[in-house]
TrEMBL record:
Keyword terms of this UniProt record: Membrane, Transmembrane, Transmembrane helix, Transport
Name recorded for this polypeptide: Adenosine 3'-phospho 5'-phosphosulfate transporter 1
Gene responsible for this protein: slc35b2
Family note: Belongs to the nucleotide-sugar transporter family. SLC35B subfamily.
Residue ranges of the TM segments: 22-42, 105-125, 131-149, 170-193, 205-225, 232-255, 261-279
Organism annotation: Clarias magur
Length: 297
């Protein structure tokens, strides 16, 4: 999306690929293939969920992916960081709306601390890197759409897991509808054949798109498993921390300096995680004490 393909030494700048939806389709078709193979090779539980319910998660997932790719053209890097690091709160609020979940005050408080800490660390680590510096109003609107649709997707998938399906079955159902929706849109606009022609002209782009889709497909295996076992909010916290851990490991391995702001941000994150574990253990102990007299009777 941000680089040119086919550039030559004699001054030709090459072409840029601009169709976000085709990249979404590539990701989904490969994920569907991987999920289908897993369903065939490994024994799966009896499927009981209505098929049409997958379409809601598919539609919101397509829109969130499109908004994520499209927003890169119109927003600055700090805006991207702040938005991605602050997704925990929207996911929790969407959980109340979709699944009528209730969260304790300490869960909201630690979610805010994690968002603040990760934002501080990521922004301090990117100060010496060249990124886009302009954020447009349309970019903010697209980014807001990404947050809303992404929050709905994980919570709706969490709701669907009440049907006791496997994570692979969920992955297959969601990507099946995603492929149908995206290929229909691409055929209607004529972008499918244009994108395939671009891919045939530039083998390097085809390799990059295939690698991106392959990583996305295997990443989905872990994503759906995490949501099925721990829920949408915990999954979002893990994904938020992943960004900070990746940069922290890079700093440690390659000797990059970490600023005082970055160190403070890491400290805030670890404090929030400790507070979250401590509060959860207190809640479990309180519930056990409350159940103890009933069990004796």
């Amino acid at each position: 999306m941000t680089r040119s393909y086919g550039a030559t030494e004699d001054g030709q700048n090459g072409e840029r690929f601009t169709d976000s939806q085709f990249l979404v389709f590539m990701n989904r078709i490969l994920a569907l293939t991987v999920a289908g193979l897993c369903c065939v090779v490994f024994k799966q539980p009896r499927h009981t969920a209505p098929m049409y319910k997958y379409s809601f998660a598919s539609f919101s997932n397509i829109l969130s992916s499109w908004c994520q790719y499209e927003a890169l053209k119109y927003i600055s890097f700090p805006t991207q960081v702040l938005a991605k690091a602050s997704k925990v709160i929207p996911v929790m609020l969407m959980g109340k709306l979709v699944s009528h979940k209730t969260y304790e005050y300490w869960e909201y408080f630690t979610a805010v601390l994690i968002s603040v800490g990760v934002s501080m660390f990521l922004l301090s680590s990117s100060s010496s890197t060249k990124h886009a510096t302009i954020t447009t109003f349309s970019g903010v609107i697209i980014l807001a759409g990404y947050i809303v649709f992404d929050s709905f997707t994980s919570n709706w998938q969490d709701e669907l897991f009440r049907h006791k399906m496997s994570s692979v079955q969920m992955m297959f159902g969601v990507n099946l509808f995603s492929c149908l929706l995206t290929v229909g849109s691409l055929l209607e606009t004529g972008a499918l054949f244009e994108s395939l022609a671009f891919m045939s002209r530039h083998a390097e782009f085809a390799a990059h798109a295939a690698l991106l889709s392959l990583c996305s497909a295997f990443g989905q295996l872990f994503i759906f498993y995490t949501i099925s076992q721990f829920g949408a909010a915990v999954f979002t916290i893990i994904m938020t921390l992943r960004q900070a851990i990746a940069i922290l490991l890079s700093c440690l391995l390659y000797g990059h300096a970490i600023s005082a702001t970055g160190i403070f941000g890491v400290a805030v994150v670890f404090f929030a995680l400790f507070l979250r574990v401590y509060a959860r253990s207190r809640v479990k102990k309180s519930s056990k004490r409350a159940q103890a007299p009933l069990q004796k009777v």
